[in-house]
Design a protein that fits this description.
nine-stranded antiparallel sheet, disordered N terminus, Jelly Rolls
């Protein structure tokens, strides 16, 4: 990196601006959350024209906007309202997050209430401020190490279930790593992860969707690149090649069900590039935080590649990773 006097002045100015904003309202920013049960979460707080707003990721699912965000004394109160989509007669649940901040650390509690006002579902959580995202990397200058074949085409050497108590639907068939799930009450199929862990890298693989496939490739166990049978559907942050609920592909590049598709994924300095079937659908875009189902909310740590296997059937093959050399 070439550092000039002008660059240093700009960095100092940006730093003072960020410091000033934090001093005025220490809650503003993006926070990595550690939730009860070891789940990973995230909250982003913004201020525009004097009004506060926030979005939350609470363990699984998507990043969603909250109902209200307001200061009350030394606390930030955030409310979320939820109602099951498949149960129209179910009561609306309101959840209130009470958050306090000390420097770059956060503590909070949450409680849910039904329409009758009775509380339930109390829990506590902690968090850390997420550092500013680095400048966009020049991918033409990134250097990579030796290629690592993640899958040998013969067996599950180098892979293991994240939760060994879950059922293993993964096996090898005709050189492909396949997942077969049986949807029955009481059956929980497992996600598969590499035993090795990685930081920044380029990952190339082939994937084949089955009927109604819903899977994902988790980078460092934190960020999910979505795998879904979405051929012919409109662009969406939950469709094939998206960074789940965070970055929508710029173009639909899916192939029809049953065809092998190529993914070329690059993660460098918290910036993501996804090339699906030869078309760039995410172009060196910043990643603002973890996605649903992440193993951790700490984006500073190396982690495994993991394949989501708890939803539906899906096939993978020819998985090759090249680590970034710094």
């Amino acid at each position: 990196m070439i550092t000039t006097r002008r660059h240093l002045i700009l960095m100092a100015t940006l730093g003072l601006t960020a410091f000033s904003q934090a001093a005025e309202n220490p809650f503003i920013g993006r926070w990595a959350l550690d939730l009860e049960g070891g789940r990973a979460g995230w909250i982003g707080v913004e201020e525009k024209d004097g009004a506060l707003s926030s979005s939350v990721l609470w363990g699984g699912g998507s990043v969603v906007p909250t109902e209200t965000t307001k200061l009350e004394g030394d606390s930030l109160l955030v409310t979320r309202v939820s109602k099951p989509k498949d149960k129209p007669d179910a009561p609306v649940t309101t959840e209130t997050l009470t958050i306090k901040v000390s420097g770059d650390k956060l503590t909070g509690s949450t409680v849910k209430t039904k329409p009758d006002g009775k509380p339930f579902g109390q829990s506590e959580f902690t968090g850390k401020r997420i550092p500013a995202i680095p400048a966009k990397p020049d991918l033409d200058k990134v250097k990579y190490g030796e290629a690592i074949s993640l899958f040998n085409g013969k067996d599950l050497t180098g892979w293991k279930l994240i939760n060994p108590e879950h059922l293993n639907g993964w096996s090898v068939e005709n050189g492909a790593l396949i997942n077969r799930v049986v949807k029955e009450k009481g059956k929980h199929f497992g996600n598969l992860r590499t035993e090795a862990e990685y930081e920044d890298f380029n990952l190339k693989l082939e994937v084949r969707t089955q009927e109604a496939s819903n899977s994902g490739v988790y980078l460092r166990g934190i960020y999910e690149v979505q795998v879904m049978e979405s051929f012919g559907k409109p662009l969406d942050s939950h469709h094939m090649g998206a960074l789940y609920s965070r970055i929508t592909p710029s173009v639909a590049a899916e192939k029809p069900i049953g065809e092998w598709q190529t993914m070329d994924i690059t993660l460098v300095d918290r910036h993501l590039t996804v090339i699906l079937n030869g078309q760039t659908i995410i172009d060196n875009q910043p990643v603002l935080g973890c996605t649903g189902g992440a193993l951790t909310s700490d984006e500073s740590k190396p982690g495994p590649i993991f394949l989501q296997g708890d939803h539906t059937n899906v096939d993978f093959r020819n998985m090759v990773l090249r680590p970034v050399v710094k």
